[in-house]
Design brief:
The structure is a single chain. The chain has 151 residues and is mainly β. It has one domain: Jelly Rolls (Sandwich). Helix content is 7%, strand content 43%. The strands form 2 sheets. A 6-stranded antiparallel β-sheet has the order 1-7-6-9-4-11, with helices on one face.
Length: 151
């Protein structure tokens, strides 16, 4: 993953993004579709067409993701940083969270092709799994109000 990190702070985010962060910072739906869940794991899919994004969500469980397709994405993180990243197909990253640790972020496809990830969360992590809520997909597309560019 090749990434460019900008530290502007949340005050520099568009108003729509700031409001969404406040409303969804405890969202445990870390993918666009839950593919499978057992006593040990949750397997998620993230599929984003160009201009689509998955809204803010909180990671509290140990997990890994694998990029199924290559692509480019922008992510707003809880600490105010904005990360623009380029992913290669097959690229995988692992994350571990200690008791009380977490990460909150969103993900927008800023490339010109579909972006597809598989994410696996481990339910026996240091933190309890978050509730998943009503099961709705938290994807915002250009038809529902694409976010303005921040450049």
């Amino acid at each position: 993953m090749n990434a460019n990190v900008t530290e502007k702070g949340r005050a520099a985010w568009p108003e729509l993004i700031r409001k969404e962060f406040e409303a969804n910072q405890y969202n445990g739906r870390v993918g666009t579709r839950l593919l499978s869940e057992t006593k040990r794991v949750r397997v998620w899919e993230i599929r984003l067409a160009p201009g689509e994004r998955i809204g803010f969500h909180r990671h509290v469980l140990d997990y890994f993701w694998t990029a199924v397709t290559p692509g480019r994405a922008r992510s707003h993180a809880e600490n105010g940083t904005i990360v623009e990243a380029v992913y290669s197909a097959g690229e995988t990253r692992h994350f571990v969270y200690g008791k009380g640790e977490h990460k909150i972020h969103d993900l927008e496809n800023v490339g010109d092709a579909d972006l597809w990830f598989t994410t696996v969360e481990f339910l026996d992590s240091s933190n309890a799994p978050l509730e998943l809520g009503d099961g709705r997909h938290d994807v915002a597309s250009s038809e529902r109000g694409r976010l303005p560019n921040e450049a």
